[in-house]
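Predict fold of Coproporphyrin III ferrochelatase; 323 aa.
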Amino acid sequence: MSGTTQKPTGAQKPTGVLVMSYGTPESLEGVEAYYTHIRRGNPPTAEQLEDLTDRYKTIVGGVFPLRENTNRQVEALQLTLDSIAGEGKYVCYQGLKHAAPYIEDGVAAMAADGIKEVVGIVLTPQYSAMSVGGYMKRAQEEADKRGISFVAVKEYHLHPELIDALSKRVQEGLSRFEDGAGANMLVLFSAHSLPAKVLEMKDPYQDQLLATSAAVAAAAGVQNWQFTWQSAGQTGQPWLGPDILETLEKLASEGVKRVLVTPVGFVSDHLEVLYDIDIEARKFAEERGIRLERIRMLNDDAQYMLAMADTVVKAVANEGADV
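Predicted 3D structure, encoded as tokens:
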């Protein structure tokens, strides 16, 4: 999606909605350029490139579900906004951090369409200055260059529709086990790790993830749960832990036999879910006598879309105050 979901029409320009996410390569041929962009222009070593390429081949055989999922999410958000606010009131554009259309491309497309007021929202519901904050900074800078008024949605991690959607998936996941949430059973919430220095910054990321996890557990009627990190980068600096493999090792030593992983920090089927959890973590768990299952991801779930749409509408009604 290089432009809008639908073109603005009429004299009254709609409010633009810049939907931002991490991005993914479109094919195996694009993995090196994608990885280089993530590494701030430094190409990966041959070993690093081979490792990442092999992971993509393992889960999808060269097909990249995240790109298609993101496209569907933006389209579904457009339809939801049309439904709750009326057609022509909002128009969604896509902006990615590490792939085209980049965040700046999305803002440029709005400017070309004459849009003057924009709300920025990231598909990830929890805020961190290192993730969501970085997206918003790029969008704000490009909007300023083009004379566009920009409102940032910082988080919506406790929106009732989001919590309800996730809690239903937890209950559904537990039903796959013979006795549901019986003995030796644990719900393990997870999210992408960040460099540990975020704690020194008093970043709200960890607290918001724990708040989402607690709210989902309560709504699903789950008492036995924990939170863990996953998918830490290999940067030579400390990252938030414990990692999911460390957690599974400890759970095995405590006699836990069944785990339902709930990737509360992710909203889509992509590499960190389809490989890091479904392949790597599941194999690690099975080797230690643990049956590991995972909830279905939100993707373009109607309640998730409603949570985002409601948050966007409220941001506009808030007269420009960041929410």
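DSSP finds eleven helices and eight strands in the chain.
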